[in-house]
TrEMBL record:
Full protein name: Lipid A biosynthesis lauroyl acyltransferase
The entry's keywords: Acyltransferase, Cell inner membrane, Cell membrane, Lipopolysaccharide biosynthesis, Membrane, Transferase, Transmembrane, Transmembrane helix
UniProt cross-references to InterPro entries, sorted A to Z: LipA_acyltrans, Lipid_A_LpxL_LpxP
Subcellular location: Cell inner membrane
Entry GO MF terms: acyltransferase activity
Amino acid sequence: MRALPRRVTIARRNLELCFKALPAKEREKLLIKNFESVGMGVLETGIAWFWSDRRLRKWFTVTGYEHMESARAENKGVLLIGIHFLTLELGARIFGMLNPGIGVYRPNNNALYDWLQTRGRLRSNKTMLDRYDLKGMIRVLKQGEIVWYAPDHDYGARNSVFVPFFDVPDAATTAGSYMLVRSARPAVVPFVPRRRADGRGYELIILPDIGHELYDEGKETVATRMNRAIERAISLAPEQYMWLHRRFKTRPAGKPALYGKKENAIESNGE
C-alpha cells in the first residue's frame, strides 16, 4: 500500500462513498484486504496468460453453469457481464476454456503490453473488439456469439446516464448496455471469478440471465438494473473488486467533484 499512496486514497474514498453505513474500521479492513488482492491479481494475470489449460483446470470449479446452458439453449447471443474484479484476466481465461467468446477491451498505449495482453486473452477466446465498436458487438451477438463486456467503469459523460451505484445516487454509467440489449436482445449473464477463501484455487460463479429485466426498457432503467446486478456480483467478493480506479470521476453538471486534487491528478490507461 505504501508504494501506491494515491491509489490507496482513491480506493478508500470509493469504499467511503459506496458503503456509507459500514463503520470506518470495517472499511479500513476491507481496504487492506483489497490491496492484498491487488498484489495477488498481478500474479494471477501471469497465470491467465501463460499457464496451459491442463494445469489451470486443476485450480478452479464452476458454480451456476446451468444458467449458461439455458441461455445457449435458446440460440441467443450472450452478453457476458465481465465485472472489474482483480481476478478479471483469470476469470476471462477460465470462462473461455468452457465457452470461447469475444473479448471487449481498450487497446493499451504501450505496444508491447498491448501485444502481451491480446496474446494472453486469445489463449481461450476467439477474437477481440475495441470497446467502442458497438456495431461490431451487435453484429456478433446477433450471430449467436458470446461477448465479454464490462459496463462497471466510468467512461465519461458521452453516451452515459447518471443512475445509482451502491450509495452514490448519480454515478455516470455507460448507455452501451442499453444499445446492445435493445439491438441484439441477447441473454445477459453476469459472472464472478472469485478467489477461494481457503486459498485453494478459484470459483467461477455464473449468475442467472437478467436479459428479461432489460428488454424494452429505457436507458436509465437498463443502466439502473445493470448496476444493481453488478452490485450483487461485487457483494460476493467485495475485497476482490478493483476499487482503485476513479469510478465516480464524471459528475452531473453543477455537482461537486467526489475526489480531491491528488486523486484527480492521476492519469492512467483505462481509468
